[in-house]
Amino acid sequence: MRSFAAVLGAAAGLAGCLAYRYRVFSSQNRAGPTVVRLRRLVAASAGAPQGSLTVPPTAYPAVRRDESVVEELHGQLIADPYRWLEDPDSPETQAFVAAQNKLTSSVLEQCEAREPFKELFTELFNYEKYGTPYKRGQRYYYSHNSGLQNQFVIYSQPSLDGEARVLLDPNTLSDDGTVALGGQSFSEDGSLYAYMLSSGGSDWRTIHVKRINQETGEAQDLEGEKLDHVKFSGITWTHDNKGFFYARYEEAQTADKGTETHINLGQQVMYHVLGTPQSADVTILADPQHPTWMFGTEVTHDGRYLLCTVSNGCEPVNKLWYVDLEAVPRGPGGALDFSAFDFHSGKQPLPLVKLIDDFKAQWDYCGHQMGSDGSPPTITLHTNLDAPRYRVVRGDMSAAAAGNFAASCSDLLPQHDKDLLQWASLIKGGTLLACYLRDVVTALQLHSWDSGSLIKPVAMPGIGSVGGFSGNHKSTECFFSFTSFTEPGAIYRLDLAGGAAAAEPTLYRRIATQGFSPDDFETRQVFVASKDGTRVPMFVVHRRGLQLDGTNPTLLYGYGGFNVSLEPGFSVSRLCWMLAFNGVYAVANLRGGGEYGTSWRDAGSVHNKQNVFDDFQACAQYLHDSRYSSPHTLAIQGGSNGGLLVAACANQRPDLFQAVLAQVGVMDMLRFHKFTIGHAWVSDYGSPDNAKDFECILKYSPLHNVRPPAGGTKQYPAFLITTGSHDDRVVPLHSHKLTATLQHVLAGSPDSPQRNPLLTRVEVRAGHGAGKPTSKVIEETADMFAFAAACIGAKWRHTKA
């Protein structure tokens, strides 16, 4: 069980003004006249180099500015002339999107590498892809894609070498491939399969249920089992196979789910009994007094306790409550009957025990043990309490009654001096498998479940990361996948039946690719000194024998937020960049991420957010100083929180970059918390409603810091801002408003020096990224990288063998 922290990460300028972005007024002094101030934005000392792709200022569509939209924030009046773009369904917004897409299409047609890159990407992406297998009930399951299928297919088989048959093929559920699997859960005995579907990239889900014949693998959908209005939810079965817990919101306020911008508040945990309508589901958890709280559920290994996590935002902290399911009565059909505890209509309070009832640390379930000889039960948890690099502790569940559970905990796996303990999983036979991150490289270790003592490290096939893992307390067998920047990797099987000390990983399946040799590439890890001296890791990947003369087309990627670690991983698109243009690919492990634990995350969050931008700019400068690249040959890429990253860095240091690929970014930092799930990001960014946070946010908000550079070319790098019409995570208005602002401030007059393109690409029936069909991935990637290559002036270098 993981807390919600894993989820998720005033518009325009004064025309023709070089050093001023927009006017900011003080609030009216009631004892005298209104005092007017101008907020001075210091322009960057130098602009971006002139790229090889140009768009004249007269080519941009006219976009209406509503100068009347001004709001007061902490004594300052902030203009927001493009607020009308916040309505995705208005004819004017749709006309804006159509006009921008038309311009972008015309420019992309000039990019010579567009079709060759698409062809190369399609060729290299067309290889068989396999997910890590896992066993549920009597059968094994795995995901598979034959190469270019829009969605992965779920297969089942009676044994690892048995005949496979399809359990679920999302490709058959829509003509355009935009219906995707959004989550799944098997009942305890494996005979029931609940799965969630999403449409058009939206975060909204519908839950469906199949019954599986354990011998044949034949599966049938259960009639009437469809649950709607589900979002940010798991599915947790009770061990009697009669029902499951899930989370939902009130019905969306638009018919086309995914296009709405209304804030998501008031999540509720429901219990659904099979064979009953959703209207009969009981609300077991809700908290109207804390509408931003979100809930996760899990049942302990023996099925006795329902564990409930409570999160408020994306900070790695949560409350942990539990319900003894033996205290819940059963109805006439034998299913648990929560009706007496229904939050809305029940007469009794749910018998919750609040094991942890504060937001001081993160707590994730590893396992528990029932007491013997009258001793109380204990629970084992993965936590960052007093341990920014995490530890595994064991505590007395009965101590919750006295409110001192945390104090009762003792270390099973203490915090490591340097390495990050990412997760730990109990394997049958009394073994705890622990996954560590050592300078952003994965290491696995086997420990004793009873004492925590190290049994042995697991031999790893090289320097890379564990991309997938399956294993639990019911089997001595587990699987993990291993990948690197230049290899899709392989899946390994580890069987502890003969004892953990003798266990060695064996190759189960190697994922084969074609069209390149991993031996032709090399990967280096360097440590870059940031502005304040902090050592920031960065991976640099390129062909062997690359000449370091500053002319190499280079792609720098970053994220830097929400406790997310960027580990080595295979990417066909980045490999194509290196093959097509003899390019360099670099990944910066910035503060704000989780690479070194919560202290690393905290050093790049809220009031420390500028550190993230400083780290990224230092990595760019390192690439230039080391002669991998020059400002003319460097493109930067980031998505979501990473979209914010690259846009903010382009504002602050336009002279470092030639092209910016900003995907589904958070761009309006003064209003992000007002839309869909944006309120959950306050834990990383701070709240614009708080005066101190506002002061910090305003300094880097991409939308509010666009200004022409004072020197050099006096222009920005080329921009391609991408978003999706059904992105209800980071709603498209962020991208729309920044696009309009860039075009107005930098290219708002015919004599503007801005010639580097400022474009946006809006994908129809696409969301934040999850579940995007392969066909759309190929089209978008080819457009982005061909655009970047054209701006850099990169020449096509790839020849087929």
Comma- or semicolon-separated keywords:
801 residues; five-stranded antiparallel β-sheet; 31% strand; globular
Rounded to an integer, what's the Rg over CA atoms?
27 Å
Number of strands: 41
- End-to-end separation in angstroms reads 47 Å
By helix and strand content, what is the structural category? alpha+beta
Counted by DSSP, the helix tally is 11
Percent helix range: 10-25%
Query: How much is the average pLDDT?
Result: 91
**Shape assignment:** globular
- The portion of residues forming beta strands comes to 25-35%
Poorly predicted runs are: 1-38
Q: Please state how the strands of the largest beta sheet are arranged side by side.
A: 34-35-37-36-38-39-40-41
How is the biggest beta sheet arranged? 8 strands, mixed
Assembly state (oligomeric): single chain
Structure overview:
The chain is α+β, with helices and mostly antiparallel strands and 801 residues long. It is built from eleven helices and 41 strands. The strands form nine sheets. It has an eight-stranded mixed beta sheet, sandwiched between helices. Strands 5, 6, 7, 8 and 9 form a five-stranded antiparallel beta sheet that branches. It has a four-stranded antiparallel beta sheet with strand order 2-1-4-3, with no helix packed on it. A hairpin with a 5-residue loop joins strand 28 and strand 29. It starts with 19 loop residues before the first strand and ends in a 9-residue tail after the last helix.
